[in-house]
Amino acid sequence: MKSLCIDLFKNCSATSLAGTRSSRVLTYRFQRTNYQTHLPSTKLTFSSYSTKTCFATLSAVTSEVEEKQTFNPDKAGELVKELRNSFNSGRTKSYEWRMSQLENIAKMLEEKEKEITEALYKDLSKPEVEAFISEIVTAKSSCNEALKELRQWMIPQKVNTSITTFPSSAEIVSDPLGVVLVISTWNFPFLLSLDPVIGAISAGNAVVLKPSEIAPATSSLLAKLVEEYLDNSAVKVVEGAVPETTALLEQKWDKILYTGSARVGRIVMAAAAKHLTPVILELGGKSPAVVHSDVDLQVAVRRIIAGKWALNNGQACIGVDYIITTKDFAPKLIEALKIELEQFFGKDPMNSRDISRIVSSTQFKRLAKLLDEDKVSDKIVLGGQMDENQLKIAPTILLDIPEESQLMQEEIFGPLMPIVTVEKIEDSFDVINSRPKPLAVYVFTNNEQLKKGFVENISSGGMLINDTVLHVSISGLPFGGVGESGMGSYHGKFSFDGFSHKKAVLYRSFSGDSSLRYPPYTPEKQRLLKAVISGDIFSIILALIGWSK
Prior knowledge:
This protein is of the alpha/beta class. It folds into 3 domains: 74-283, 3-Layer(aba) Sandwich (Aldehyde Dehydrogenase, Chain A, domain 1), CATH 3.40.605.10; 288-480, Aldehyde Dehydrogenase, Chain A, domain 2; 516-548, no CATH class. Helices cover 43% and strands 15% of the residues. The chain has 20 helices and 20 strands. The chain has a 7-stranded mixed β-sheet with strand order 12-15-16-11-10-17-18, sandwiched between helices. A 6-stranded mixed β-sheet has the order 7-6-5-8-9-19, sandwiched between helices. Strand 15, helix 15 and strand 16 form a beta-alpha-beta unit. The chain is globular. It starts with a helix and ends in a 5-residue tail after the last helix. The model is unreliable at 1-68 (pLDDT under 50). This is Aldehyde dehydrogenase. Residues 68-505 form the Aldehyde dehydrogenase domain. Keywords: Coiled coil, NAD, Oxidoreductase. Residues 92-122 form a coiled coil.
């Protein structure tokens, strides 16, 4: 880091530099050269008469800064210890504390809507309406539900007891897990950070949020807002990149929720396994949309576009990854997609203000490579335009690309849409089941038997009939994957449950103590014990009077 700091200012002259961000931000921004670099809030003055003097002055100050600013495993350990002390004090467990934090989040969402929208635009050029609906409104809904239902969620669940424990009562108590870690992602950087935090707080935990460094404006805003609105003795944000995340993963947590790729999910799970820490992994995969010929084509196509290009330009784990339809119906489907895409984004979608850009140069180059692969680029039937300077790729449709191509082997996470054709729509079952289980499956048909067949025979995190992505807006439905697309779930009550331990509690008094359970085990006791365990009243009566069946 020291050498990098010096390299940035090789030719410095008499200059005064000041920054505004915290020490945690400094570390990762120096390491990622494609982002604007900030120095900490210390005024540094450089001599103009000598480059050597400049080097020496900066080197001395940098050494001091580096010592103070680096977020390493020791600092991470201190952070976890601080939060665990807060949790052990009992402050996070009370209904009053949980409600106060949720109320502050609701207040934050109302007061800082403009700042949130601006940050999302800086990171993704996300249209204001899309940002409002997909991130702010959804976060508000999650918070409002928790505020409304928290008291009910916290009430222990009564459970029936049996004759073997009579007299007794039993209940399931939702215990906070302790200190939890939420590692968020960049495509919905505000919602996918705040939604799990709402669940963790509702359940009474102390929580650390690690937002994605790939969405730096939103990450910085989250750090600022959490510090301003929430109890910093129990809720903290750690900004940074791989080194900071690695330092956090070396610690012992009571639960980790990670949203992102399967590759990193394996790293998170391996780190968690060292401490036997449970995880919720929200990963993704190739989520297909199956389109039968019996649909209302215009409505179906509009909903597919809404679940692909109007959803962060395809950069969404629940977005439509590819379409399956019959060979006969494909031309009609493609023509309808062309018409509706022009209606949505105009004749030149590259200049549309209603579509997000690609998040980074790295992601842009990855998508361009997928499209430039041999036997892929010549399958484009719509779009394909790119502008690396603006990080924009037009909505692109490809027809029947090779199965072995990377475009069909990995999650696309962008505006490229392959269409796979089959002889009959029922063949789509085999296409989907031949791949890892997806996060979502979308089926467009009016055929009731086909709907039933998909529900019964296709394994996926979620399924939606005749629409896309809206299932995640239903708080009564769990959101999560299966197999390669993830494990565990959250949203609404499922978030509360995901960050709680369901503790089994049995209450008994000192009355009704039977000698039946204690030695010596006489034949009479054995007969009566077997009768009691069987629950057969007639056998119990016979055993009590010394008879047997």
